[in-house]
Design brief:
- By secondary structure, this protein is α+β, with helices and mostly antiparallel strands.
- It has a domain at about 40-145 and about 155-160: NADH Oxidase.
- It contains 7 helices and 4 strands; from the N terminus they run αααβααβαβαβ.
- The chain has helices at about 1-5, 15-20, 35-45, 65-75, 75-80, 105-125, 135-140, and strands at about 55-60, 85-95, 125-130, 150-160.
- The protein has a 4-stranded antiparallel sheet.
- Helix 3 packs across helix 6 (about 105-125).
- It is globular, with a radius of gyration of 17 Å.
- Bound molecules: flavin mononucleotide.
- The site of flavin mononucleotide has 10 residues, from strand 3.
């Protein structure tokens, strides 16, 4: 992908899917089949978690009143572009174990599940964009059972890229990273 090759250069050779996972804002108005949506969650399903607790929860909608309700929970800045994505997902972590204790790895585990979903999306030619800019309390209210055991984390927009709107759009330039040495060290 030209735009990725132009802006993202890995110091060490890795699979291109890691560079091509990119938080786009320009989504095509093209719906996602139920089968495709299920595949995304299937990838999340197999993520590792502490004691195999699988504490992640996803609530999603594509269209209709439920989708409008979910759009309204996004911050204004995110709603502008994310409303156009054909799939919107809210992400939660179950922070209480069955024994009533604090599951302190719940967010970490849920992060692994989201990344699996994001990579599976890329494999399927789709893009994801996570958003912490949501009303977390309103998002939590979408949980029907045992709400008190959950924390809402973020939303994820999913869909196909609209290549035509990428041109000359400074908001759509794939960003860089600090180097490996800045966040890992050998003891
Ligand atoms: C938990 C989380 C919350 C984020 N919140 C927002 C957000 O509210 N709005 C937004 O435009 N991008 C948001 N992002 C996207 C990040 O800005 C983006 O992932 C980061 O700049 C790296 O760029 P890349 O994903 O294109 O590689 C969020 C990403 C994550 C993982």
């Amino acid at each position: 992908m030209d735009i990725i090759n132009k802006y993202r250069i890995a110091d060490y050779e890795i699979d291109k899917m890691f560079l091509e996972r990119w938080s786009i804002k320009s989504f095509l108005d093209k719906s996602l089949s139920k089968e495709k949506i299920s595949k995304l969650f299937e990838a999340a399903r197999w993520a590792p978690s502490s004691s195999n607790r699988q504490p992640w929860r996803f609530i999603y909608s594509s269209a209709g009143v439920n989708r409008e309700k979910m759009n309204s929970i996004l911050n204004d800045g995110n709603r502008v572009w994310a409303s156009k994505a054909p799939l919107l997902i809210f992400v939660y972590a179950m922070v209480e174990t069955k024994q009533g204790k604090n599951n302190y790895t719940a967010h970490f585990d849920t992060g692994a599940a989201w990344m699996s979903l994001a990579i599976q999306a890329r494999i399927m030619g789709l893009y994801t964009h996570a958003m912490g800019g949501i009303d977390r309390e309103k998002a939590l209210n979408l949980i029907k059972n045992n709400k008190h055991k959950f924390e809402s984390i973020c939303a994820i927009a999913v869909g196909y890229i609209d290549d035509s709107s990428l041109k000359d759009n400074p908001e759509e330039i794939p960003n860089q990273r600090i180097s490996v040495n800045n966040f890992s060290e050998q003891l």
